[in-house]
Structure formats: structure tokens, C-alpha cells
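[User] Once you have settled down, look closely at the record that follows, and write a paragraph about the fold.
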Amino acid sequence: MSGNPEIMFEKFEILEVLKKDEHAGVYLANHIYLSKKIILKVLNTAKISDPSLVERFKREAKLLARLDHPNIIKVLDFGTSKEFFYISFEYIEGKSLRNVLQESDLSKEEKRRLTVQLFKALNFAHANRIIHRDIKPENIFVDKNLNLKLGDFGLALSAEDNFVTSPYSIVGTPSYMSPEQVSGSQLTHKSDLFSAGVVIYELYTGKNPFLKDNVTLTLNEIMSFNEDAIKENLEGLDEDIKDILTNLLKKKPAARFESAKEVLNKLNVKDEPVEIEKQAKPVLSKRRYGIIAPLIALLIIIIAVTIIVKEEATPELNQPEKEITSNLDASAKDNTPVKNTEPEHNQSNEIREPEKTNNNTETASKSAEEQLLPANETGEGGLFIECYPWADVYIDGEKIETTPLKKPLTLPAGEHTLKLVHPDYPIYSDILRIENNKLMNLKISLESLLGFLDIKVNPWGNVYINGNYKGQTPFKEYIKVNPGFVRLKITNPNFADVDTTVYLKQGDTLGLKFILYKK
């Protein structure tokens, strides 16, 4: 880098680019007027399609600017310049708690000191009616003197919003989520207490009690963990720390401490007055569903995992393999006229019960081959489709036929978009190149687009998937599921419900085992 330093917004001298993409940038900068290093986060509002998002960022920046506390990273200023919106934060000479845990062997006293500071930060934020929603070691910063600051309020929301998160929207970092976050329930400050409990558990034991091999298993563990097992793993810790962790890591919010202040009292921390901003008014429109209201979710590039479940996209599949074989009679061509211009069946979230498939389709295979047609001057080729179980055939957005086909379709030579639509399966979509005087054969099993659940419940349970009753365990066969996030609920009148979300990739079989516990 040469020449004059880059100056942004006439007051930030850029020292280092930390993260940058087309939407946002994160910089280490020198604040010219304050003569100090800061973290600068910049959003290009011209790249954001929803203007209301930018307005919410601005309102949330004002909300976070209220949090003036020694254990919370301070928002210094924010503003707009042309199409850009920026926020500057104080810069901490230190490391994340994650790095501290990996690199340092902390004493009992040092761990206790960090614990106290974390709950002081939460006590102040909650007193100002702000819920963090992403408490984790990566968002906690520690300097060389072991002073702690809580940062990255990118997912924070004001308690006045009081909305229920959509069951298909999970916001936060999986292994530190509360059960109510995973299930999409209404969040309160007690969700932060649970997440902080996971952090403190890791601080004292060296491991996260819920972290598993993948996101799906981790979320399942949070929803179905044994509270007694948590307590058994705390042997050797001071009694007050054991009591705090046992209380914080309760599945039901009502069973946890009422506030971070109660935790501080348990740690024998002297009461400190908390200054509450008097203008704590609702800062966002109150909508029951769909709005997650991050402060700067597009600005905070460093957020490790934000799982947002969206409408499932059409699965991507490999292009068919092609092989030239034999000549066919030209009479095999189909001159069927084009019919409807829109699909009659939309992609369905309905999940069917397992059913037996024949040997030719059990492997969920797809194959293709090309055959020669007698030469002609029309610039056309043929397409023959074998689809299990059946599907409406759309070529370039127009419905042509429904399988099984009686004869090949005749198409102009060139590229065409193929869609196969069945109400109980994801939409199959592919781009095919039809060649002059050649016949392409496709063999497709829609089973290959699904995922499969192998659910076992002790003692037994009624299973609901995406709100639809699937039956009572034990199941003789796997349950077929559209790939993506799946809402799973298990009930038994004598035990507490299991209500969780799992993620399935196309073609995956996920085995889940649940042990039900008394209410």
C-alpha cells in the first residue's frame, strides 16, 4: 500500500481492511478527531434491496449507543454519507475469550473475575431492555489485564419488540443457543442467561456441553439434553459456581435465575446502581412474524453462524451423462402442443410416509443417454423421460406432458430448462442441450431429491414433522423429508415434549435418538 492514507467520511483514516464484500466492510481505522484507533463498520445501502433494513440499522445503532458500561464495547458514533451508513466502535487491545480459552491456563480466581464481568455487562444491557441473542466466546473480548468487554450486538433486539421468532428462523450461534431460540419461541433476557451459562460452563470445564459433530445434532442436544447430566459434570467446582451453572442451564426459562443481578448476588458481588436510559421506547415496528431485527447483521461480518431458514431453493443436480447409441424411427417424435404456462403444483412441504420402491429406483439414481434420429432439416431433437414415481413435465416454463410418456417429446435444438413437478417432492430442475437429430433419454428418480429421518424414541412418541402427524414410534421405515430445515415435534402424554429443528441435506439419512423425561 502506497501513497496517501485512505480517509473515509472525512474523519476515519483506514489503517487495515479486516473484512470486505460488496455489501459491507470492516476496518481498523484512526478516528482523526478523537486521535484513537477504532473499528469502523460500513454498509453500502445501495446494495440493499429492502430500504427498511437500513432504517432499522440506524434505529438500532441509536439503541446500542445507550449502552455506556465498562464491560460493553462502546458505539462511538454513527452516520450516513451518500449511499453509505457507518458505525464506529471502540477498539480493544486484546483477544477474544475464545483465544484466551485456547491459549491460557486461567486460575480459579481469573475465571471468577471474568464471570463477574460478563454478568455485569448483561445486567446493564438487560436493565436497558436489550437482549443480545448471540452470547459466545467470540463476542467477548479480554485485554491483557483481564478486563472483559461484551461486543458484537449485531443480533440484539429491544425487549419492547416482544415478537415471536418464526419457527423456521433460527438466529444465533448453534451450540450457545437457548432451547427457546432453537424452537423459535418468544425470547426474553433469560435466553441470554442460558447462553452465558454455556460460556461459563466452557470457561470452567474446557468444553461446550452441547457441541456435536454437526449443526443438526447440536440443536437436537440443546432440545433434549439431560439436566441431571449437566450437574454430574460439574464435580470439583466451587459450590456457588455449580449452583449457578445448574440454574442457568435449565431448559425452561421460568426455572432459571430471574436476572443477571441474581447471578451477581450469588457470586457475592456488591450491588451497583444501574443507570437506565429513560427514553427506552420501542424502536422497531411490532410484527409478530418474519422480522428478525438485527442491528447491523450485514455489517457484522464476523458473526460466526447465523442460521436463517429461507424458502427452499430448487435442488441443484449434476448434468446427465450422455451416450450415443442406436437409430430410432422418426415416427417416435412427439408433436404435442404446448399447454399451460404455469405449474399446477407448487413445491410442497408435505412429507409422505415411507413407502417401498422397486429395485430400479431404490438407489435414487438418475441416468441419461442420447440416441440418433434419422436425419432431417428441421433443427429438432427428441427427449424421452422416465420418472419415478411420476411428474408433470415443464419445458422452458410451459407444461408439456405428464409422465409416463407414451413417446418422446420433440424440441427445437438448443438449450432448454426442464422442470419435473410432483406435489410430494422437491422440484427437479435441469438445463438440457438438445442436439439436432438426436434423442436424449433421461431416467430420474425423485426419491434422490429427498432426505430421510430414522427416528427412535424411548419409551415411545407421536411424531410430527412440519406440523403434520407422521405416526407413532417405532417406525418400520425411514421418514422421507424434503431437504432443508425440518421442524420436529415428539409428544407423549406422560413426558415432556421434544420440539426442535433439524437440517437435512439432499440424499442424507439422519439418525436421531430421543430419551423422553418426565414433565
About this structure: The mean pLDDT is 77. The chain has four domains: 7-90, 95-266, 324-448, 450-515. The domain at 7-90 is CATH 3.30.200.20 (Phosphorylase Kinase; domain 1).
